[in-house]
Amino acid sequence: MESAARLDSNHKLTLKELPYIIRWRDDRCKRCGRCTAVCPVKAIAPAVRVQRSVRSEGAVPTPTAKRTIVHVVEQVADIEKYCTGCGTCSLVCPNEAIEPEYNPNNKFLHFKNKGGDAYKRGGRRNDPLVSTLDKLKFTRISMLTDPALDAGRHEFRVRTLLGRVLPPEEMPLTLVNGELVVDKNSGKFIPPVREIYPIMIGSMSVGALSPPMWEGLAMGISYLNEVEGMPVVMCSGEGGMPPRLLRSKYLKYFIIQIASGYFGWDEIIHSLPHMVEDPAAIEIKYGQGAKPGDGGLLMAQKVLKLISGIRGVPQFVDLASPPTHQTKYSIEEAVAKMIQSMSMAWGFRVPVYPKISGTKTAKAVLNNLARNPYAAALSIDGEDGGTGAAYNVSMDKMGHPIASNLRECYLDLVKQGKQNELPLIAAGGVGKKGNLAANAAALIMLGASAVSIGKYIMQAAADCLGDEHNRCNLCNTGKCPRGITTQDSKLYRRLDSDKVAERVVEVFKSADVELKKIFAPMGRSTELPIGMSDGLSIDDKAIAERLGISYAC
Amino acid sequence: MPAKKKQVRSQKAAVKTKKKEEQIIEITGTKAVIRGNVNGSRVPSRILEEHIQLAVQEGARELHIQAAGQHGIGGRIWPKDETVKFYVEGPAGQRLGSMGMPGTEIILKNSASDDVGWINCGAKITVLGDVTNGAFNAAAQGTLYVQGGGGARCETMTKRNPRFEPPQSWYFRNVGDSFAEFKAGGIAVVCGVDSRNPENILGYRPCVGMVGGTIYFRGPIQGYSERDVKLLELTPQDWEWLTTNMKPYLEAIDRMSYYKELTRSMDDWKKLIAYTPQEKAKKKPLKISATEFRKNHWEKAVGQGGIFAEYLDHDLTVLPYITTGKFRRNKPVWANEKYAPPCAYACPTYIPSHKRATLIREGKLNEALELVLQYSPLPATVCGEICPNLCMNSCTRGQLDRPLAIDKLGKLSLDMPAPKKAAATNHKIAVIGGGPGGMSAAWQLAIKGHTVNLYEASAKLGGKLELCIPHERLPREIIDKETERFRQLGINLHLNTKVTKELFDKIYKDHEVVVLACGAHQPRKVSFPGSDEIASAYEFLRDINLGKHPDLKGKKVVIIGAGNVGMDVASEAYNYGAESVTAVDIQKPAAFGKEMDIAKAKGTQIAWPKFTDRFDKKERKIIFKDGSFLDADVVIMSIGDVPQLDFLPASVHSERGWLTVNDEFQTSDVKVYAIGDVTGLGLVTHAIGHGRLMAENIHYQLMHAPRQPEAKQVVPYEKIKTEYYEACKTAFTPQEEGNRCMSCATCRDCHMCEVSCYWGAITRNDLGNGRYEYVTDDEKCIGCGFCAGICPCGVWEMTENI
User: Fold this and answer.
1) Most buried residue, A337, A410, B472, B581, by most Cβ within 10 Å?
2) Per the CATH hierarchy, to which homologous superfamily does domain B428-520+643-703 belong?
3) What whole-number distance in Å separates Cα of residue B683 and Cα of residue B468?
4) Residue A475 forms part of a structural domain
């Protein structure tokens, strides 16, 4: 029996099944090969085509046949080499001869399960619709009714508190020489609190990110603190931290994450005696908004010398972070145990808080934390978050939107009268459409003390190509064409950490301007309008009702 | 209600005033006195304004206002090039002199309320006291002289209209916070005398959003909006202006005594002016660049090279997207002959038909036709006649028009002489069996210079070729001629020598290696009632080839077993007069190719699945287990043959009647090799291929040379670019076939890669003796893969550049 594949197109996909179709222009192409050299997935390849025409130019039939063989750039109709639409080809093409075009009628997911493997990818939820956060409007413009402020002229103090804030009556205050001071001999535990900028960079690990990307972010937030006086903090992610940073004075700008894989923690503990500063906080990761219930996996090909050194693992092995922490058996036990251990490591001087994925059960966790005097905050990561690697089904179909989840937690705290005590950190889709400050302000006004950003900053600071149409999303494969999520030095050396840092600074400075533009007409310049939901409206009655805000149209 | 009451009271007061003749306004010539408070009652701002406008209309040019908090006194007066002077006493209300016009002069004898000179359009306003918040807000022309200091937010939004002189404002002491916000023009002077805030005479954060105008000041300040304005020393021109205009100001506020002190030195003064939009555009968006931050802060704190430097073993520089040399992601390799072409790969003998084509293209036809003899002693017989030509089935060319005519090329080798033998090695090898396998083994070993003794039971070489292949499929003259050529190679032939146990022992002792190629010559049979009456295919075909012709005229023949041998039997049965032939099988028939085509063309029917139950010779019926039956005069069983192994010692292991061999064709006895049908039934070409490959193995073993593995991967079809070739319309000639060959996986030296490479990275090196290679210049190559994508032969391949 002849092999069908050899003979014709049996069982071959048409390009129409694929998510992106390459538009290549013969008349513009000079066959320099730049596009084929850079295509991260080899979705395009040089090929040979034959064209044949028969002409008859005489007064009677005088046929002449002309054959021309041309070299072309061709898209490969192979699901394993599907064009991801990243557009690196267009980026390098000197003649604008090639570009991928999104194919809305694709049947990609019908086929992307070769060998019975469910489709895995990185990136974000593929949902191009306008999110609730983006629908929220700031409708309280108090130019005459309240002392309105001028964002361009007035000074603002956009700050928030990370850490449990004791109510005044619980503070062991005492009068000394007519001054109110904290009584250090009271024996009462005073939780550590940091004053930070209300937008922080969320957890993206060394490993998920390339060295220049991670360092660029780290440098950017250090710049903001040191030069601009903006106390922006960044979470390490679960891949440990480089000892050079752990032992530097800049450690205070970093939140160190501990997750179920415990990667890099022996190196962190070894660094403890050498630390000249405490970290900003410790985040205990229990869940990730982008892939609730799904663990992490760093593929062996990414685990090279760098990752091996920083994570404290052998080279060339797959690193799995299980979806759940081992040795923890209930909320009470798990949270208490982890918070205790982490607090103890830094002598109870550092705020320690857990991060969970957005879920209907968030309130249960919150109520547990509300009773734990050492719990510094609760971070909730909604479904629109990003990730380096996850199953498509986890990314697209699982998780809870952040808006109502956060809101309901905040209102729960209000009921208990603890809304000013335990800060809520919200994440997941902040800046999804580029509206960083507006999304952040909306979450703050729904009750968040701070928001966390991830993929937005990758996009804004490092030109990440991904979008909600599954563009690129190669983060898990180590083939990131921008050099953001790869450990291949040939790729990540495309990224200039100085440029990333500069962009981080620009992004935060402009977001700061925008936050002020939002807060000024409400007369807020020194107090963050946390929970000030009367300033919000939405043109959707159901959402308005669910969030307890006004409906405006 | 209170407002109503007030109104009533004021009407009563007016009546009273009339009685006492006390009036709001008294005009004497050009002088008017206007009272803001009449009989203890305050005159509303609207009424006072009516009286002021009336007085000016009546010709008053000197107005004395006794103010009681009325709004906007002294504004909006247009006496047409004349001067109207206001002397205001008492608490003037907000916006004194607001919207003031040229020719208006206002002197307030005490401190003012908010917004003095609001949108001043030319009035000269002198305040012999302090001005409070918002003085000169949006003033566009005119002057403001202040004897005291200013409140918060003075001097904001001031303008300069090119049609007029710019506004001026002078403050003797200090001013309050947020001074000169959004100032767009005009000159403000803050003298800093007896400042109420000794540390800061310009207040908190002055000049936010200031885009024009000048502020001269004297005394300490604590910052200003650095984004908007710059702090400069005064120029002589500034100083000239300041000292000149200082005099009228000090005179107006009655402080001439300070003139000397205030003009003591230019160095006591500074000025603030706005950055031009061009200057702003040039200003770097960041206070320091990220690179400066890395060098001067970051690396000082975390170490040289950054936080990851100790783990990275590459330069910490940035790479472009298009790279060459070691930074390419992929690199091309000229993998000439790395892969086997489909023809050679499909051929069990690995006959390199592509090389034959190359030699033809090079004009070396004889060499091309001789080449095949290095691989097979029987190219005309096998390739040319009886082989199913697996090579042609897989030929890439077949995808375009028709496969290369390898059969015809094989036939053309018929007249070629035997190859030259290598020098004698004195190694002695026995080959048992003179069929295609034995001939192939003996041929190869003899060419390599070994001494070969070949033992054949029958009188002729050729084995089943001779015995069992119908002559219509294999003309006698061809096999005879090739057998003759075989004999020329000097192999010691022992024909008519059936090897017995005793002879084998002797052969075994006398030779270094014994090759068993004795084939399978014992027909396999299954037993059922009547099976004794059935002939075997082997016997049937052998007898025909030996000249014993059967008479099948009008007979119905049934063949059990519908393989290719069964097809040969069917053809021969028709040749000898059979009326009908039906081949049955228990499974889907294995017959294919020429054998089946010939048999079917003659009328052979095939039926399956048919399990034979019995043969009733009397009834001339063969009955199957499903109850069906066929009429059968003659039944021939063609279910294969098995070897006769009874002459072999126990050291040569067999399983179920077949010899078992390893990959090198070695039996369990290391000295004994076995090939061909004795190891399992196969095609003739399999036996020949086994013979050649085994000979290689034996040769290497005898010569103690390291074995070069010959088996290659086959080149994938998609690597061969069939597009370059046009469908062929001409008849067979060797030269045409040479051109038709697509030279799969073997460079045809067409220079396509060299010409196509945009970067000029590919060169052809002539290595002499007709040899050549294509190489890449790594410093030019970007690893685009064009060479691999367009190479007609699929020679170039891309590999990871590691």
Assistant:
1) B581
2) FAD/NAD(P)-binding domain (3.50.50.60)
3) 13
4) yes
- For the domain B522-642, what is the CATH code? 3.50.50.60
* C-alpha count within 13 angstroms, C-beta hemisphere, residue A42: 14
Residue with tokens 């970093």: A254
Containing domain of residue A159, as a range?
132-551
Are A287 and A168 contained in the same domain?
yes
Digit-coded pLDDT (tens) for A410-457 = 999 999 999 989 999 999 999 999 999 999 999 999 999 999 999 899
Q: Which residues, 6 or more positions from B733, have their beta carbon under 8 angstroms from its beta carbon?
A: none
Contact of B549 with B470, CB cutoff 8 Å: no
A463 touches chain B (CB under 8 A): no
Interface of B with A in 746-775 (CB under 8 A): 756, 758-759
Q: What is the CATH number of the domain that holds A88?
A: 3.30.70
Nearest CA in chain B to A307: B311
CB distance from A275 to chain B under 8 Å? Answer: no
3-state secondary structure of A193: coil
Task: Show me where the domains of chain B are located.
Answer: 428-520+643-703, 522-642
A 195-254 near B (Cβ less than 8 A): 211, 214-215, 218-220, 222-223, 226-228, 242, 244-245, 248-250
pLDDT in tens, B465-511: 888 888 888 898 999 999 999 999 999 999 999 999 999 999 999 99
Do A234 and A330 have their domain in common? yes
Spell out which residues of chain B touch residue A69, defining contact as CB-CB under 8 Å: 723-724
One domain for residues A327 and A450: yes
For the CA atoms of A294, A300, A306, A308, the dihedral, rounded to the nearest 10 degrees, stands at: 80
Q: Is the pLDDT of residue A348 over 90?
A: yes
Pick from B95, B140, B96, B150: nearest CA to B119: B140
Q: Domain tally for chain A? A: 2
**pTM exceeds 0.90:** no
Q: Do A71 and A192 fall into the same domain?
A: no
d(C-alpha B129, C-alpha B145), whole Å: 10
**B594's tokens:** 């020429």
CATH code, domain carrying A219 = 3.20.20.70
- Strands annotated E in B638-722: 641-642, 654-655, 658-659, 672-674
The answer to whether B124 touches B102, Cβ cutoff 8 Å, is no
Size of interface A-B (CB pairs under 8 A): 166
What tokens does B364 get? 């070396």
- The predicted-structure confidence for B194-220, as pLDDT tens digits, reads as follows 999 999 999 999 999 999 999 999 999
Is A506 inside a domain boundary? yes
How far apart CA B741 and CA B433 sit, in angstroms, is 36
* C-beta of residue B512 within 8 angstroms of C-beta of residue B452: no
On whether residue A127 sits in a domain, the answer given is no
Phi and psi based region of residue B179 (left: phi greater than 0; alpha: psi -120 to 50; beta: remaining): beta
DSSP H helical ranges for A371-488: 392-397, 402-416, 436-446, 455-462
Which amino acid type is present at position B105? E
List the alpha helices (DSSP H) in A398-530: 402-416, 436-446, 455-462, 489-492, 497-519
Written as six digits, the tokens of B71 are 């709004």
A366 lies in a domain? yes
Mutate to test the interface with A, among B280, B288, B311 (most CBs of A within 10 A): B311
Q: Where among A71, A91, A117 does a domain terminate?
A: A117
| Tokens describing residue A214 | 């991670």
Q: What is Dmax (Cα atoms) for chain B? A: 170
User: Is the peptide bond preceding residue B609 cis, with omega within 30 degrees of 0?
Assistant: yes
Write the CB contacts of A273 (distance below 8 Å, at least 6 apart in sequence): none
Token pair belonging to B457: 């039971």
Q: Taking the CA of residue B258 as centre, how many other CA atoms within 13 Å lie in the half-sphere pointing to its CB?
A: 17
How many angstroms separate the CA atoms of A461 and B632, rounded?
Answer: 88
